[in-house]
Amino acid sequence: MATNKKPGNWKKRTLGVRAGTMRSPFQETSEALYMTSGYAYESPEEAQGRFTGEIEGYQYSRYGNPTVTMFETRMAALEGASVAQATATGMAAVSAVFLSGLKTGDHVVAAKAMFGSCLHVVEKILPRFGITYTLVDGTDNAAWKAAMKPETRMLFLETPSNPTLSIVDIKAVSKIADDAGALVMVDNAFASPALQRPMEFGAHIVVHSSTKYIDGQGRAMGGVILCRQDFFDNHLQVFIRNTGPSISPFNAWLHLKSLETLDLRMKAHGENAARVADFLGSHKKIKKVLYPFRDDHPQTKLARAQMDNGGGMVAFEVDGGKAGAFRLGNALKLIDVCNNLGDAKSLITHPETTTHQKLTAEARAELGVTAGLLRLSVGLEDADDLCEDLDQALKAI
Ligand SMILES: *Cc1c(COP(=O)(O)O)cnc(C)c1O
Known about the structure:
The chain is an alpha/beta fold. The chain is built from 14 helices and 14 strands. The strands form 3 sheets. A 7-stranded mixed sheet has the order 3-9-8-7-6-4-5, with helices on both faces. Strands 10-11-14-13-12 form a 5-stranded mixed sheet. Helix 8 links the parallel strand 7 and strand 8. The chain starts with a strand and ends with a helix.
């Protein structure tokens, strides 16, 4: 079994459909799902050779699996990374990078605007192992620089961020890390490699929750780590093999097949979200709309430099605070109230009472998570229907 075709100068849409495909002797066109935990060897000698590494091949699906390999190879091609490691969830990916790459005494600098569970790992779990941290306003390059210490080993950011869609300058932060011999990890879940490839701007490690846009249909959990060969060889591989956050071959297969349509879907998500953002921006009951490619976004220039379109996420603030936001949520007939994102179905959440509920009021205020803020993951329905649903629901406020 081998990779049948090798990417030459394939463009990203072709890579999404073709990269990493390995055909069995049956020459199936659709990638096979190898639902197996173990692999039989021809002989004890071969088993020994696989364990010493002298003979190439799979040993156990916690270590590797052909379907998972196809997913990883395709992801690496799309992000422009040397290696990819798939994981069971996005949080497994983030945690594995921190725990394999850091040790007691190390220091992390991270942007405050962070996915809730990532914040928990940085603030609550890492300090138990003597790893300290500083949180900064990710949009302030000087703040990143000022937070650096001699023991800083990793910088962590997500862009666009959850839920206020602030943009971090990947190139500037990567330069600060390079100057200090530290690594930058970028959570690229909101943009996906179809819209943003952080390694092109100097990021060392990219992580994904493939649960989101990569799956794209709200079906299965997964994560991916993309990094350079030396980080994989010296830190990640042995950690993953022995701690076991491995992805199920079934979930890897779903996400592999989803990559075939990622580029098309992200284009459609971006077109729909831009339409919805403009509709909301012109509505008198909306106080503020946040969308990276709108001219009124404070960092639209940087967003346009880093991303191919504005993505599928829109944040907006309604009149009437929490009561107004809840009235809107209750009146929606098409858009679902749900804290997930990156689905073909449009989903809306009220961050103050859901995803950001555990933060202090002060921390929420710093992030711009106000009582009237809603986060909308714009799906692939017809944009006219989405605007119509929002329009009728806004009448309830
Ligand atoms: C969902 C998400 C995660 C966590 O991923 P899971 O697959 O839910 O574990 C991390 N970062 C961002 C930005 C996310 O949206």
